[in-house]
Each structure stands twice: as structure tokens, then as C-alpha cells.
């Protein structure tokens, strides 16, 4: 059963009527399965805002507001909180419910990703706006040295990239891991992903890494990559 309770199963299946019966019968909201997930993780996976609210309200009444905060910030075996999952899904309503209940916008997975990193994997502008407004750090680098802005550059979502870039401009000088957090890395992310509009914006803003003759870690720089792709409008 992988440590699943009836409440886990009902939440993951998106069955509010069953969940309500289980909660009325005293089912524990805080029980974790073998992967460290609570019923909140299941409710988020089911994309059921009503279920997330039901769990939060029940926990608030049963254990109090202070005890609810660590519950909604519960991390699974990979370090994911329910908010990470909501951000990946681009579910702004659920993300707001979780944050209102005390979820931390800057929580880190084992790979160093914040919910904003996850939001940029499957770009959702409304969810990103919420996370930025709620104080999710824009300069947090994951285990490979990439900030949410680098994820946005790779995604090709121009509006999302512009939102994050307007809020946080990374240093031109090298970040950790040999420049991975720098503007040069942004160009590489955009160029290697074929995101010509984003790369063009950076180049036209005068941020080209002309002096990075070899590029990061000995690789061709972003201009070399763009030339090879024969994108004349960018070069």
C-alpha cells in the first residue's frame, strides 16, 4: 500500500465527499506515506482546490494555526512541498490557499529548487506573479547553479521571462560554478533551447557575452550558438 491511508487515496482520486466522511470520522491529516507525502500532496496532485481547503480547515480546527504551518510545508522524500507541486502544475488558486495557510514560497527541494523554479518548468504567468508577490526569492540557485530566470529563459515563455527579469537582473560577473548564475548563462540557456525571442531581447539590451570567447566551460558562447542556428534576426 506504500503507506497510503484511505485519506491519501481519496484525496489523490479527487473525491471531496469521501474525504469529508473520512475527516468527520477522525482521519489524520498529518499522516505521511512511505514517500513522506501527506494528504495535502494528494489533494494538490488531484488539482482539487476544495480538497486543499477542506484539509487546511480541518487541520486548523484540530491542531491549531501554528501546527498547520509545518504541515503545509511538509516535504516528501525529494524535498517537495505541496506548494512545489502546485507551482509545477500552474495551479494559482491552490498555491494561494497553501500560502495563506502558511506555505513558504522559498522552500527548497533536495535539488535546491524553489516553487518558482518549478513554475518555470511548465510556465504559468499568474502563478509566477503570485510567487513573486509573496516573496519567493528570485536569486536562489538550484544544485546546477540556475535561478528561476534561467529556467524561464529555457522555457521560451517571453512574458514569464520579462516578469522575472524586470524583478531581478543577475550579475554580469560570474555566479557560482564558473558563471552559471550570470547573464552569460542566461544567453546560453536561451540559445541552446532555441529561444530566439528571449535571446534577442538580451542581445539587443547589450548583454551579449562577446568577451566569453570560449564560452562557459570551454563551450561556444551564445553568439556562436546563435550563428550556427542561422537565426539572422537574432545575430
TrEMBL record:
Intervals holding ANK repeats: 2-34, 78-110, 111-143, 144-164
Pfam family, one: Ank_5
Superkingdom of origin organism: Eukaryota
Residue stretches in coiled coil: none
Alphabetical list of InterPro entries matching this protein: Ankyrin_rpt, Ankyrin_rpt-contain_sf
Keywords in alphabetical order: ANK repeat, Repeat
Protein name per UniProt: Uncharacterized protein
Source organism (scientific name): Chlamydomonas leiostraca
Amino acid at each position: 500500500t506504500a503507506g497510503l491511508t484511505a485519506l491519501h487515496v481519496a484525496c489523490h482520486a479527487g473525491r471531496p465527499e469521501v474525504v469529508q466522511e473520512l475527516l468527520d470520522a477522525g482521519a489524520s491529516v498529518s499522516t505521511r506515506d512511505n514517500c513522506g507525502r501527506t494528504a495535502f500532496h494528494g489533494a494538490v496532485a488531484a488539482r482539487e482546490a476544495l480538497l486543499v481547503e477542506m484539509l487546511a480547515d480541518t487541520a486548523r480546527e484540530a491542531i491549531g494555526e501554528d501546527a498547520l504551518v509545518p504541515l503545509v510545508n511538509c516535504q516528501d522524500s525529494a524535498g517537495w512541498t505541496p506548494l512545489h507541486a502546485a507551482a509545477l502544475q500552474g495551479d494559482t488558486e491552490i498555491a494561494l490557499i497553501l500560502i495563506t495557510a502558511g506555505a513558504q514560497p522559498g522552500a527548497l527541494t533536495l535539488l535546491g529548487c524553489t516553487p518558482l523554479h518549478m513554475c518555470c518548468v511548465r510556465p504559468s504567468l499568474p502563478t509566477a506573479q503570485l510567487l513573486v508577490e509573496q516573496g519567493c526569492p528570485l536569486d536562489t540557485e538550484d544544485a546546477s547553479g540556475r535561478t528561476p530566470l534561467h529556467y524561464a529563459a529555457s522555457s521560451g515563455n517571453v512574458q514569464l521571462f520579462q516578469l522575472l527579469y524586470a524583478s531581478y537582473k543577475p550579475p554580469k560577473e560570474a555566479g557560482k560554478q564558473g558563471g552559471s548564475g550570470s547573464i552569460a548563462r542566461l544567453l546560453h540557456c536561451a540559445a541552446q533551447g532555441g529561444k530566439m525571442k528571449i535571446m534577442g531581447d538580451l542581445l539587443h539590451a547589450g548583454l551579449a557575452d562577446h568577451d566569453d570567447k570560449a564560452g562557459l566551460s570551454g563551450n561556444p558562447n551564445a553568439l556562436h550558438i546563435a550563428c550556427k542556428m542561422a537565426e539572422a534576426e537574432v545575430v
